[in-house]
Amino acid sequence: MTKTIIDLKTGITSVEEYTAEELAQKETDKVNGEAFDTEQANAKQAQEDLKASAKAKLIAGEALTEEEANTIVL
Question: Using an 8 Å Cβ cutoff, are 54 and 72 in contact?
């Protein structure tokens, strides 16, 4: 895999191969990014589920948990 380096002062463009360390860091960043995205999606889904549960309980006239009550915006 190659990278393009542009020196803005001189305008010289060069193409170089990634080092093993750069490739390893790139893979680590990709894995960490995917894990972060998954974590964020799970947190968003959990919040949506909590709101749905609170709404269903309100409609049914049931008591809410504190966590469910905290999702309600007045």
Answer: yes
